[in-house]
Amino acid sequence: MTIELQAVGRERLRLWGGLGVAVVVWALLYSLNKPFWDWLLFDWLGLDPQTHLGSAIEFFFYDTLKIALLLTGIIFAVTVLRSFMSVERTRALLGGRREGVGNVAAAGLGVLTPFCSCSAVPGFIGFVAAGVPLGITMSFLIASPMVNEVAIVLLYGLFGWKVAATYVGAGLVLAVLAGWVIGRLRLERHVEPFVFETTLRGQPIDLSAKLSWEDRFAMGREEVASILRKIWPYLVIGIGIGAAIHGWVPEDFFVDAAGPDNPLAVPVAVGIGVPLYSNAAGVLPLVEALHAKGLAMGTVLAFMMSVVALSVPEIVLLRRVLKPRLLVVFVGVVAAGILSVGVLFNLVL
Question: Are strands 199-200 and 203-204 parallel, antiparallel or unpaired?
Fold first, then answer.
């Protein structure tokens, strides 16, 4: 009996100790990501960070590793959490007649999980696979990158509480309504089939069965490997496009194209913002600079929302999990909402 208890204790130590080491390594890699690339590219290789080429290359390598780390951590955590929730239980909790409430709850959860647009995709996969209705999951996918507490604090400091509150309210309403509209269209068949699959050691798994922590961690590791293997080319292409735009498109281009004299400033700002890639906090310095140069508040808010909720890297990544028709619907509904927000705020702010 003592030998068996000792064996169980060693197994638990191995399992949880391994997880602890993995978390420490992940945190070190994440914290050293930017310093490492700055040292390698600028100090060792001698690239100039002020040039288009240096800025674009640094953006590409830094963001590729950052997103890969975020995807790894989020996919693992979401998969382990998903292992506690059967499809039937999740559908009973969030489905059918409670869909409107579910959209609000999912949007609120998105605000509390400040992922960038690319790293919110694993959450989308986990929700759909666990049986959460597609429209509710879309509310999370939109709200998570669009509204986060860092951006709220920074907006408050830069522009005051009215603008910060307007941003929060607009983001939540847009996420709830867009998710509800997509849910009404019943487009579940346009999600790629692998999203609905849950496997353990290569075999389909029933989440209603009793699983050990070792099983749950194994599911997490396998899901990380499976999803990254499927999406990495899309991720690299998307970030590469974002890096090229980041390095070569000057700030004055935005002012000239979407200035106060252009009656189509909001659509132009959204069209310019979509190819870019950043989170809400990262794009705020540009938002401040554009507003200082005369762009209307509604225009810069629409620009910021398009950058964080409809970036090209996210669209490229989503194509791996959404079929073309659903992807077009998602982009169209969200873009229409952002355009409406920008035009409305230009009239009232």
Answer: antiparallel
Q: Which two tokens stand for residue 252?
A: 């004055």
Q: How far is CA 55 from CA 31, 40, 252, 277, in A?
A: 20, 13, 17, 14
Give CA–CA dist 257/142, Å, rounded.
Answer: 26
Tell me which H or E stretch contains 6.
Answer: helix 2-38
Nearest to 223 by CA among 196, 249, 245: 196
Name the phi and psi angles at 200, rounded to 5: -135, 120
Rounded distance, CA 256 to CA 345, Å? Answer: 20
Helix orientation angle between 265-273 and 297-309, rounded to the nearest 10 degrees: 30
Helices 52-82 and 213-248 sit at what angle, rounded to 10 degrees?
A: 160
335 in Cβ contact with 271 (< 8 Å): no
Spatial contact of 168 and 52, defined as CB atoms under 8 Å apart = no
- Residue 96 DSSP one-character state: G
Q: Which two structure tokens, joined as six digits, stand for 283?
A: 């794009």
* pLDDT tens-digit readout, 253-297: 666 666 666 777 888 888 877 776 666 656 666 777 677 777 788
Tokens of 105: 């709850």
